[in-house]
Amino acid sequence: MPGLHDPLMIVTDLDGSLLDHHTYSWQPAQPWLDRLKQHQIPLVICSSKTASEIIPLQQQLGISGAPFIAENGALVQLDSANGDTVRHHAGKDYSEICHCLRRLRQQYQFRFSGFADFTDKEVADITGLSVSDAALARRREASESLVWRDSEEQFSAFRDALDAEGFSLTQGGRFWHVMAKGSGKGAALAWLLQSSPAHQLQRFITVGLGDGPNDAPMLDSVDYAVVIKGHSKTPIVLSRADRLNIYETRHSGPDGWVEGLDYFIAQE
Description:
The protein is an alpha/beta fold. It folds into 2 domains: 8-89 and 184-264, HAD superfamily/HAD-like (Rossmann fold); 94-180, Putative mannosyl-3-phosphoglycerate phosphatase, domain 2 (Threonyl-tRNA Synthetase, Chain A, domain 2), CATH 3.30.980.20. The protein is 36% helix and 22% strand. The chain contains 10 helices and 12 strands. The chain has helices at residues 30-38, 51-61, 94-108, 120-127, 131-137, 152-164, 185-195, 197-201, 216-221, 253-264, and strands spanning 8-12, 43-46, 68-70, 75-79, 85-89, 112-114, 144-148, 167-171, 176-180, 205-210, 224-229, 246-252. Strands 5-4-3-2-1-10-11-12 form an 8-stranded mixed beta sheet, sandwiched between helices. Strands 6-7-9-8 form a 4-stranded antiparallel beta sheet, with helices on one face. Helix 4 packs across helix 5 (131-137). The protein starts with 7 loop residues before the first strand and ends with a helix. 42% of the residues are buried.
């Protein structure tokens, strides 16, 4: 079991994990956040949220400048060896994705609504975010979030049509996410570690925490995986065989987040 003096990296989902699913509060996790900061352990946000949402949240959490993974892995940001900010962008940009979705919707009469179709107020009503925070959620760069309103048969046809266009579908806590095929939280974390100057000097021991099906690729690729009790009807299915390095929490949200770190990280 790793300790606080080991070269740890914590990789965390936000909604339903570090942040409460309903209130977006992280207060139960504050003692652990302070501990990580004290021991200079990097906390990497790995979320479906946009960069515009993550950067101010990093400021509130006291981790400004830390690497992060946004839009379910479609976007990665980190600082390079010379201190420049590097943005890794998987696949096509947002306008190209939205153009493709409009074309498919018209061609096949699919019924769905994406963030490009919603107003800030409508996104706020769906998510419980403030209108100003909903505006940040709509500042997408490399993926689209949508609500499916059609049949399962049409959904299967939609997935096939996206596949033919070079896109994939990922299920999050509230929305389906359309992004470039081959991208995702696991691929984004692999790119981040490979590109991180600090990781090249000393290999990090990674602890990942998540509560939704879209977290599975990330949880499969970390050394220790915390599956937080979630609200999704679809269970998290991990493909890794090392069951001793997987912990499923009894609590949800930030309480489960704390429970998972308590379980895997030895404290002096």
